[in-house]
Structure formats: structure tokens, C-alpha cells
Amino acid sequence: MSDRDKPHPLERSIYLQAAELESPAERVDFLDQACEGDDHLRERVELLLNFSEAESFGVAFQHRDPLLDDEATLPVTGGRTVPEPSPVAEDNYRIGPELARGGMGSIRQAEDRKLKRSVALKIMHSHVGSDPSSQARFVREAEVLALLSHPNIVPVYDIVWENGKPLFYTMKLVKGRTLQQIINDLREKNPATLTEYPLDHLLGIFLKVCDAIAFAHSR
Fold first, then answer.
1. Which of 21, 44, 99, 122 is most buried as measured by Cβ atoms within 10 A of its Cβ?
2. Is there a domain that residue 96 lies in?
3. CB within 8 A of 89, min separation 6: which ones?
4. Distance from the first to the final alpha carbon of the chain
5. Is 82 within the bounds of a domain?
6. Least confident of 3-7, 58-62, 71-75, 102-106
């Protein structure tokens, strides 16, 4: 991401406050006040919220790349601390490499020892995992995903608790490049990516993401 594309401190501040509001109506009212009629600022904040929401709902906008084999993983960025799963959790799951990071947590590859299948495991960052409201949001996220059935939303398999707190939840493992990686390659004018992902193909992917988010909200 270039410096031009990085969120301005004001955008980030408004985004973080808006992300804490669960009601769409409350978000609209908050953005009306916080953005004070600045359409560009509001557009940037809403874009951040949309991508954050796509991540939170487990939207599967990862597309298999034929150049990657089954052991390929997604790149890790950022430096937030993610707690290691405890020995209790590892009785049922063999924890593998970290695949990616988001604002609230990290995605790791794991093996379900009981069912003998590979899964993706989402675990919260240490700085949010100890907060009761973040824990409640994490559990709610897993519960909502578990109730949804949509081709572009990753299904949740299990949620693991320890000492009365949610430790992590597991979901279907999706291999390949992320939409962000594809966009970065296009920005750098990668010839193979330009050929594979013309504008109409990219718009189709984006519409699938929007459709998945709309479906989640409708439920």
C-alpha cells in the first residue's frame, strides 16, 4: 500500500470509533457528525469499514492461484502480538503457520486432529483479546458466521473456549491470493495479473463481496 492509500490519522480515528457501533443507524448518525459534510473523508472511512466488515464476516474473496501449490500461504503483515494457543487447544488442533493478519486478529493454518482435515483458525490479538467487549464481539462474529450459508462466506466449524474466554474459532481453509494482493499486483502493473484480472473480472469479484455482506446483514 502506498503512502497515498494509507488512512489519514483523522480517517483512522473516525473509522475506529464507527467500527465499535453495531447499529447501522448509529453509524450513519455518527458519520454525519464526525465527517461534517466532507464527502471525500466519509467515502474513505466507509471504504475502510466495508473492507473491515468483509474480513469480520469471513468473506471468501480469496481466489485460487494455479501457480500456488496446496502448501502455499498468504503473506503476513503487521506486528501485533498474537497469543500462542495453549496445550489444551493443541490436544484437538495442530497449529500451523500464520497466514494473514487483520485489525482484530490473526489467521493461522491448523489441522483438526479429530476430523483429520486442514482448517483456518482465527485468534484475537493480545491487545484486544483481554477486553470483554471484544470477546463478546468475537463470539458473536463466530455465531453469525455459523448460521450463514453462502458461497462467498467462509463457514465456521468450531469455537474453542478456555477458562471461560473464547480462545479461537476454526473455519474452512481457503487457499490462494487475497483480493488485496491482486490489487497490489495490478497497481504495480504485473503483466500476468493484468492479463488474468481485467476490470470486468475485478468488478465481478467486488460485487460478490458486496453480495456476501448484504446477505449477512439480511440474516
1. 122
2. yes
3. 95, 160, 162, 167, 168
4. 33
5. yes
6. 71-75
Residue 94 lies in a domain: yes
| Mean pLDDT for the stretch of residues 29-40 | 90
What band does 54 get if pLDDT is binned at 50, 70 and 90? Answer: low
The Cα–Cα gap between 124 and 67 comes to 31
> For residue 107, what is the domain's CATH number?
3.30.200.20
DSSP sequence for 49-113:
HHHHHHHHTTB--EE--TTS-TT--PPP------PPPPHHHHTTEEEEEEEEE-SSEEEEEEEET
pLDDT at 31: 92
Range of the domain at 92: 78-172
Q: For residue 154, what is the enclosing H or E element?
A: none
For the whole model, what pTM was predicted? 0.59
